[in-house]
Design brief:
Number of strands: 7
Strand order of the largest sheet: 5-4-3-6-7
Length: 515
């Protein structure tokens, strides 16, 4: 073999080696990507939903954390507020519950002492309370109206019927309220409500229930929620999020995915339904609003933000969630970054604790938060930025890995994520909007799908008062049926025309932000 042949062979081997090396790198990237996707699926089906990381896990990397936090020391956060010890024993029934007093007395023959034969005297009484539930029942109100006629035949006088939601309707407003709360507050499908009514001795077909809910939506929900939307857009700060729902196609050719959007300001919440996730949903709802919108990294809001000049605020919970996914898949290098992000939440938690202890008004709390964020949170953000740059420079950081995706999210959303430092009115997260959507997600597990687009429109609207009227902020849904019935009657029959600004549900508190 000649020297030329040897040189050609060597060149071919070098090229083949380079090709194999490139293929190996590609396969390693694919393996990492598939491993991350598999871990995400396993966590989705079998993992816990909490985003809290066990402190013991962070302790395994104490040396790395200490080295990364060797920056100028910061004042320690305020000590956690001690919780009051819970009392022992059986809790008492609330005082507002009605009481039925049942007096129990000793028989007359037993009021004589068996030892001396003397008559006993009453020295007091013991009080015992037991809960009693009266099941739902249908009560038929029969109105008997007296008629009076003029003997001379000039006319007849008769009292007017009490107003109801629909003229000549068969049901009182309480029935509309009961169905709305059961369907959209307690998430009971209509076919189950039909079965419940049968069990209690009366029957309302589910088709009739649907007609009643449509009437309630047209007469009451739409005008009141239009007023709620005006009040919501009067503010300069909104949180928004969306979740998918299954919608049955009306011609019976299967299903498709629709979306329920939530818009929140303080405890006031509104839902909107669209058949797609496109930009038209936020654009139609927000109109010309131009305040600050806090969302995750979804780009569907970009068009309306550019058109209206809306300022964007980011969500540190979404950023933390992506870093946490990488840590849970065994990536030790991101633990320092996770610890630094957690410090932002510690600062916010301490601020809210001080607000509660000092009973600060909104203005005072915003001023306090601005001062603390400038003094402390800015240093933490600088450390996070430096840590992101350090992780970016590591050769082990692959763009499609969980770590690479988390770092890309932080880089792309950095301006939005740091907006809360410049504007203390903003929260550092979008958790409260996500919590509002839990109401829809809980219902989705029960009724499974919307029967049509109209079903989605009708279903999204009554959910808003259920969430806004929650007596315990952000923890459950509640709507008093009696108050809803009164509101329904007054909104549809009033003179002068109803003032919907007084009919909108009022939040329980004006200050939120729970981590």
């Amino acid at each position: 073999m000649t020297t030329a042949d040897d040189s050609a062979t060597m060149t071919a081997l070098i090229a083949e080696c380079a090709k194999l090396r490139h293929e190996n790198v590609r396969l390693q990237h694919d393996v990492t990507k598939l491993s991350d996707e598999l871990a995400a699926l396993l966590k989705r089906f079998f993992g816990r939903s909490s985003e809290r990381l066990d402190p013991a896990q962070l302790a395994l990397f104490a040396d790395a954390v200490a080295a990364a936090e060797a920056s100028p020391p910061e004042p320690a956060p305020a000590p956690p507020r001690k919780r009051r010890a819970r009392g022992h024993g059986r809790p008492q029934f609330p005082e507002h519950l009605p009481r039925e007093v049942i007096e129990l007395d000793v028989a007359e023959a037993d009021r004589t002492c068996s030892c001396c034969g003397e008559a006993m005297v009453c020295i007091g009484e013991d009080v015992t309370e037991r809960g009693h539930i009266v099941p739902a029942r249908m009560l038929v109100k029969r109105y008997l109206r007296k008629k009076y006629a003029c003997k001379a035949g000039h006319g007849v006088a008769m009292p007017e019927l009490p107003s109801t939601l629909v003229d000549k309707g068969k049901y009182e407003p309480s029935v509309y309220a009961y169905l709305a709360v059961a369907k959209y507050g307690d998430h009971i499908p209509l076919h189950r409500l039909e079965g419940i009514s049968k069990r209690h001795g009366f029957k309302i077909p589910k088709s009739t229930m649907w007609d009643l809910l449509v009437q309630l939506d047209e007469i009451v929900a739409q005008p009141i929620l239009a007023q709620m939307r005006c009040e919501l857009l009067d503010g300069r700060y909104l949180q928004a999020d969306e979740t998918p729902v299954t919608v049955r196609i009306e011609d019976g050719k299967g299903t498709r995915t629709g979306y329920v959007w939530t818009y929140r300001w303080h405890e006031r919440v509104l839902f909107d339904f669209t058949m797609t996730r496109q930009r038209d949903g936020p654009k139609l709802f927000l109109g010309t609003w131009d305040g600050t919108l806090q969302i995750d990294g979804y780009t569907g809001y970009d068009d309306v933000a550019r058109t209206n000049g809306i300022a964007r605020a980011g969500c540190w919970s979404h950023a933390r969630r992506k870093v946490l996914e990488a840590a849970e898949r065994g990536d030790k290098d991101v633990v320092v970054l996770l610890r630094l992000i957690g410090r932002l939440f510690v600062i916010e938690r301490a601020l809210r604790g001080r607000r509660d202890r000092m009973s600060l008004e909104d203005g005072a709390f915003v001023a306090l938060r601005a001062e603390v964020r400038t003094r402390r949170s800015q240093h933490v953000l600088a450390a996070i930025r430096a840590e992101v740059a350090r992780l970016r420079a590591l050769r082990s950081t692959l763009p499609k890995s969980a770590r690479g995706k988390a770092l890309t999210y932080l880089d792309n959303q950095w301006d939005a994520l740091t907006a809360a430092v410049d504007d203390a009115v903003l929260d550092i997260h979008n958790n409260d909007a996500e919590r509002a959507l839990r109401h829809v997600v809980t219902g989705r597990k029960n009724w499974m799908f919307f029967g049509s687009k109209k079903g989605g429109d009708v279903g999204a609207r009554p959910s808003a008062p259920c969430v806004t009227s929650s007596p315990v902020a952000r923890t459950g849904c509640f709507l008093d049926p009696r108050r809803a019935a009164t509101s329904a009657r007054d909104s549809s029959h009033s003179s002068p025309p109803p003032r919907h600004s007084t009919s909108t549900p009022r939040p329980t508190s004006s200050t939120s932000s729970r981590v």
